[in-house]
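Figure S4 source data
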Amino acid sequence: MTLDKKSRVELVLKLAEKLESPDLRWDHANIILNTYGVRSLDDDSFGPSTAETVNTASDEQLIELAQHFGLETPNDAPVAAVTTTVKSAQPLFVFASHLSKHKGLVHEVATALSTYGINLFVAHDSITVDAQWHDEIEKALNLADAGLAFLHDGFRASPWCDQEVGWLLGRHVPVMALKFDADPYGPFGKHQAQVIRNETPTIIAEDVVQRIRTKPELAPGLGASLVAALAISPSFAKTDAIWAHLRELRTMDPNQCAQLLEATKDNNQVHWASAPLDGGLPYPRVIVDFLRAQPGGPIIAADIDAYSVYLDKKDTEAAKRTVAAPPPKV
């Protein structure tokens, strides 16, 4: 059995407490560890701690030790998702073309887009000290999945902005225009620009993600971005914002499905939250159904099924506790 990360850490710490009990002699603790194939405790005060020694054990050894001490074994713990060998899409890398005097606004939009796992290349922020800025810009233009042009007065007259847009169009990647006080032009002008009036950087970023969702060629990268963002979501509100876009995708490959399953298990801002856009159901239940509908879902079907069984068992246990301890009568 393979333990998920959370179950493994919890089991290691519980076993360390048992082994450090004053009722258990040091030599007896080592006999127990050695019997199950785990190395002895270090008698050097500067050596590995008990917990560090226990952590060298395999998952199977940890479970056997837990059974020896009568601890509750995590047989019902969700197994770790299998990592597939299919080449997976990478999070989106978008090039920002803008006038330098508006770099503050562009930086704020980049920060807002990072909530969704999208990396907006802003030359003033992204180029490291002493790097050849000309080379770095060309490298970014060649790597970008898309472009985002901040059209302010003077944009067209800027040789850098004009050439950046032309470079991206020449690579046939999507270039999205944000119209502040200048219009798109030339081949760039055949697509409708997003008109910006008084929108905040957060709203601008949200609208950009909406536009990205309409572009099939960016869907795999968007999925990778959103899954990566969900894995580190710091709050229920951020989880809701990310999920609002992720739930619309039907392009998830096996690796992305496996990563999303792990994110659901490991991030308590996901697995403790409920999905307002899905009838208030717990995110784990909603995401299980979502994964089954993805192209990569069948590849990790065993992992999805195991997690679903785990959720069923947890729900049953919670129901039993509720029956055993009914609320007090008023």
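Figure S5 source data
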Amino acid sequence: MKKYVAKFPTAKCKTLVFSGGVGTGKTCLASAMARAIIEKGYSVQFLSAYEFCSLMLKVHTSPISERNALLSDALTCDLLVIDDLGTEPMLKNVTVEYLLLTLEERQSKGLATVITTNLSGENILNRYGERIYSRLSHKQYSMIIQMQGNDLRL
């Protein structure tokens, strides 16, 4: 990940998914990357999956004229980190739809996204569907990194 941070924002891989069991260092690694990228002068937004879902619900229920302002940081920051994907509520017309919108917008602009999750690739596919799974596992600009080991918190 040092190479990724050193090459940021020109690293070819724009979407990183850290997947693995509880306590394997996913959030710690994402946080360290975010700090290092902030120190390089780039903008970072770090949201738990629950916070991201709450923000997207607010966007969904807001007047159309206010939506762009609410979405702006998530769609334009240099690095967006969504921590613990899979713990957020599955809200109809919100969770999957706005996650897809966010990933599509960020990938089309060449902006970096880091996601941490306890879900396996298969579980991501089952929970969020083929369109999101495809964007998270795209061979040209995405990478799912499996983190293994014992719970480091114990």
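Helices lie at 2-7, 26-39, 49-61, 64-76, 95-108, 121-128, 130-136. The beta strands are 15-20, 44-48, 79-85, 112-117, 142-147.
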